[in-house]
Amino acid sequence: MQQKPEHILGQGGELNDAVWLDVLEAVDKTYADLVEYQEKLETRNNELQALRRFLGSILASISDYLVVVERDGQISNASASFCKAVGLERALLDGHGVAEFFDGAERDKLMSAMRDAIQRREEATVEALLTTPAGRDPVEFRIAPRLDRRRKGIGAVLTGRPLGELRRAYSELEESHHQLKETQSQLVRNEKLASLGRLLAGVAHELNNPISFVYANTHSLEKYASRFETYFERVQAGASRDELIALRAELKLDRAVTNLRDAVQGARDGAERVRDIVEDLRRLSAEGSGEMLSFDLVECARVAANWVRRGSKTALTLNFQGPAVVMAIGRPGHIQQVLMNLVQNAVDAMAGQDDPTITFQAGYEGDTAFLGLRDNGPGIPAEIAQTIFDPFFTTKDVGQGTGLGLSISHKIVEEHGGTLALCEQITDGACFRITLKRGDDG
Length: 442
Ligand SMILES: Nc1ncnc2c1ncn2[C@@H]1O[C@H](COP(=O)(O)OP(=O)(O)OP(=O)(O)O)[C@@H](O)[C@H]1O
Ligand SMILES: [Mg+2]
What we know:
α10 runs antiparallel to α12. The termini are far apart.
C-alpha cells in the first residue's frame, strides 16, 4: 500500500494484477487481525464481567463494611452492609462523600487518617463512630491506599468492622463466664461440704465409742459411790464392827474398790481418746491452710484411710508397704483431703465386694517422696482413664458424686509442685500415685 499510483496502475490506467493481489492480501490480513482482536476483546470482556460479578457478590455478601473512595473522599463503591448501616440504597450513595457519615471530631479523625494513609501510601487503622439511623456505632476502619500505576495515591479502600456488636457479644460472654465461675465455686463448695459431711460421719462414729465407754464407766462409778455412801452412813451411825464387816461383804466393797479404779481408768482412757480425736481434727483444720512443712506421708495416709473407713462401715482392709515413715513437704491437711478423696473413691468402687482392700506403697525416688494407693475393685476402664480428672466427670448416680473429687485433688497436688496420676501398667484394680517433694527425714 506504500506504492505510488503509477506503479499501481498499468499503462492503460488499469490496475496491475500483482498490486491487486497485494491489496487483497493486506485486506485479508487486516480482517483476520480484526477478528482476532474482536475475540480477545470478547474474552477480556467476559473476564471483566466475571470479575464484576465476583466483586459485586463480595460487596453484597461481606458482613464487614467495605467502602471505596476517591482521593477527595467521594464514595465510588460500597458494600451492601455499609449501605444498610447508613440507611441508604447503593444507588443513592453516588455523589456522597464518606465524611458525611461521621460527625465532628469523628469525621476529622477519619479524614485525617485517610489523607495520611494516601499520602504515605501506608495502611492505617482508626476507630470512629459511624452515624447510622439507629445512633452512633463504633467501627474499626482499616484504610488501605489505592495507588495508580505510577504509585500515586488516587483514593482508598476502607474496611470496617462494627465494634458495637462485638462489644455486646464480649460483655455477654464475660457475663456468662462470670456465672459459670460462680456455679463452679458453688459446686466446689458443695463438694467441700460433702467431704466435710463424710469426715463428720467418721468423727461421729469415732467419738461414739470412747464416749459410750466413758458413759458406761461413770454409770458403774455411780453404782459404787452409792454402795460406799450406804457403808459410810452406817459407820457414821456408829454401827458395830461385826455389822460393818457383814455389810462390807454384802456390798462387795473389796471388789468395788478394784472395779472403781478400773472404771476411773476406763473413763480416763475414753476421755483421752476423745481428746486425741479432737486434737486430730484441730490439726487437720489448722494444717489445712497452713504453711508447707515436712510431714509423714504414711501417717497422713493412715489417718485419712481410717477416717474414711470409720465413716463407711465396710470391713476395709488396709495394707502398708515400704518404709514406716516417708517424709514429704506440703500442707498435711490438704494432702489428707486428697488421700481421703482417693480412699473414698476406692471404697465406692469396691462397694458390695467381699474383700475390699487398699494397699499403700510409699517410698522415695531421688528428691521425690511418693505414695501409691491401689485397690482391688473393678479398675478404671481405659476409655475413661483420660477423663476421670476432668471436673464434673463422674460415673456415679445423680446425687452420689459431683465428679469434682479427682479434679480438686489434682489441683491441690499441682499447687504443691507434685503430681497425681493413674499408675502405669496396672492389670487389676485401680491405682493412683501421688508424688511430692521429699521432706526432711531427720
Ligand atoms: N478407685 C477407683 N476405681 C474405679 N473408678 C474410679 C476410682 N476412682 C475414681 N474412679 C472413677 O473416676 C470418676 C471421677 O472420680 P471423682 O472423685 O472425680 O468424682 P466422683 O467420685 O464421681 O464424685 P465426687 O468425688 O465429687 O463425690 C468416678 O466417678 C469413677 O468413675
Ligand atoms: Mg470422688
